[in-house]
Amino acid sequence: MATTLADTIWTELAGVDFQLTTVDAGGVPTRSLRAGAGEPVIFLHGTSGHLEAFMRNVAKHAAHYRVHAIDMLGHGYTGKPDYPYEIPRYRDHLLAYLDAQGIAKAHIVGESLGGWVGARTAIDEPGRIASLQLLCAGGTVANPAVMERIRNSTRTAVTTDDVALTRARMRLLMADDADATEELVAVRHAIYHQPEFVGNIENLLCLQNMETRLRNILRPDDLARIDVPTLIVWGRNNPFGEVPEADAMHRNIKGSELVIFDECGHWPQHEQAEKYNQLSLDFIGRNRIG
C-alpha cells in the first residue's frame, strides 16, 4: 500500500483523546498510550518492538473500549532492568501494569512475542484475561533458522548506526515493503540507538538462544490449559512462522478461532488494519467482561 499523509501516526490519532505517559509497573517505568473508555484492551508488541505497532488500531478500538498500548519490559522507552527477559518476567510486568491501572480483567491482544506473553498469562492467571488474541504469536516452536534471523537482523540494526539496517529489519516483518513506513523506521531507529537499549540487547534477545527458548516454550499441554476465548490471526506470508504453526495452536487451544490473512506478513493488525480491526471488535464484542 502506498504511504500517504493519512498513514502517519499522528493522523491515525487525529480526533482521538489520548494520553502518552509513563506508568510505574512494579518499579519499572512503562510507556503507555491510553485512549477511550470501557472495558480494557491491552496491546502487546513483538520482539524489539514498541507501542507504535498498533497505531492503525487505537482509534477504532478506543471508540468502544479503553485501549492501553504499552512498551513491554526492556522495550521501547520502558525501563530496561539488567536481567534476561524470559517469559515469566514479561508476564509479571504485564500483571504489574494491570495492577497499577486498577485493571482486574482485560482483553489481551498480543502480536509475536506479545502473543507468547499473553498466552503464558492466560495459562497462569486466567482470571485476569477476558479474551486473548494471538497475532502471529511466537513461543510454540524453536526453529533455529528463524531464531538466527531474528537475532542477527535485530542485533545488527541495533549495534550499527545505519538507518538502512533498521529499514531492512522493519521490512522483514511485512509482505509489502510500503507498510514499513519511513515514519515507523525513524521511530524504531531512535529506539534502537538509545544507549541503554544498545547495552541491553542481549537481555532482550535471550529467547533466541535455544536453551533459554526451550525453557520458556509453550508446549501442546500448555496450550491445552488456555480456557479463555482465543482468536488466532496469522499472515500467510509470515516470515517467522508458517501456517501449520497456526493450525497447531488452533488444534491445541480448545474452542479457539483461526483466521488466515492472505498477502500478509508478521503484522496483520498493521498490514491489513481495516480487516483486522473489524475482526477484533467483533471478537471482543462476543466476549465482553460484563
UniProtKB/TrEMBL annotation:
Pfam families: Abhydrolase_1. InterPro entries: AB_hydrolase_1, AB_hydrolase_fold, AB_hydrolase_sf. Residues 40-271 form the AB hydrolase-1 domain. Gene3D superfamilies: alpha/beta hydrolase (3.40.50.1820). Transmembrane segments: none annotated. Keywords: Hydrolase. The lineage of its organism: Bacteria, Bacillati, Actinomycetota, Actinomycetes, Micromonosporales. It comes from Luedemannella helvata. One of its GO terms (molecular function) is hydrolase activity. It comes from the Bacteria. This is Alpha/beta fold hydrolase.
